Amino acid sequence: MSDPRFRWARTLARLVLGAFDLPVVVRTSPAVEDLAPGAVVVVNGGGLFELLTVLVAFPHPVRFVLPPACFRWPLVGRVLAGMGHLPFEPGRDGRSLVRRGRGLFRTGGHVGVFCPDPAAAVSPGLQFAARLAWRARCPVVPLALFGLDAVLPPGHRLPRVGTLRARVGDPFRPPVEPSRRPGAEIRRLATEIRERLLGLPDPLLEPPPVPDRRQPGPVESAGQGGQADRPSLPPFPPDPSPPDDRGGSGGIP
């Protein structure tokens, strides 16, 4: 994270979450660590604590698409605009925002999109993310947040003590073949994003990585002067994960 603004924002996010005693457990796909600039990061939820959690969890700078109301908050709006976050009102300026999002890719950044209810039949945030990724031919990174309903129930302004969890999934690319029906391709991509996002497991319920149980390579045989091949033991299959309970604390439509 070379941008000093995002380093400062990450430090501030850690301080705020630490002040409320909200540790963050993160599990990230190895492919995300070396992700080149220019991806769409799709996150469930859409409140302030979701934004703070993503700043801590995602290893690269992300400029988010946020509702215009966020930019009207005193001081916060200036900070958001100064960091390059974009205001977006669904149904009004979708085409211009796609152009601006693609412009951010050319400057070497990632664009984040919040989806308050990715399981809903109609999700403007999900549709916008699919449209932007399809037109820019850029990878999509699903990022699932957990535990926000427990620490910030509806109607509460201050969070309870609890653990926030973030699971960053594998990047994937939309199809690059030209299509005569872009609308159908975008809807298909939105469905794939939804399935991948909802399929990410809670890091606290996900089994740990299986260690490599293979035996050492060929060993010199002292009695025969040759090499004895020792077969490798296959890794034990991971235990099935129990059902997860993801949550969000309010959202962006």
What is the mean predicted local confidence, pLDDT?
A: 78
The domain count comes to 1
- Report Rg: 21 Å
Instruction: Count up the helices.
Output: 8
Question: What is the oligomer described by this structure?
Answer: single chain
Describe the protein in words.
This protein is of the alpha/beta class and 253 residues long. The chain has one domain. Helix content is 33%, strand content 15%. It is built from eight helices and nine strands. Helix 1 (4-19) packs across helix 3 (48-57) and helix 5 packs across helix 6. The longest helix has 17 residues, at 182-198. It is globular. 34% of the residues are buried.
Task: Compile the SSE list and pairings.
Elements: H1 4-19, E1 24-28, H2 30-33, E2 40-44, H3 48-57, E3 62-66, H4 76-82, E4 86-87, H5 94-106, E5 110-115, H6 124-136, E6 140-146, H7 148-151, E7 164-168, H8 182-198, E8 219-220, E9 227-228
Parallel strand pairs: 1-7, 2-5, 2-6, 3-4, 3-5
Antiparallel strand pairs: 6-7, 8-9
Helix pairs in contact: 1-3, 5-6, 6-8
Which features characterize this protein?
single chain; 253 residues; alpha/beta; 7-stranded mixed beta sheet; two-stranded antiparallel ribbon; 8 helices; globular; disordered C terminus
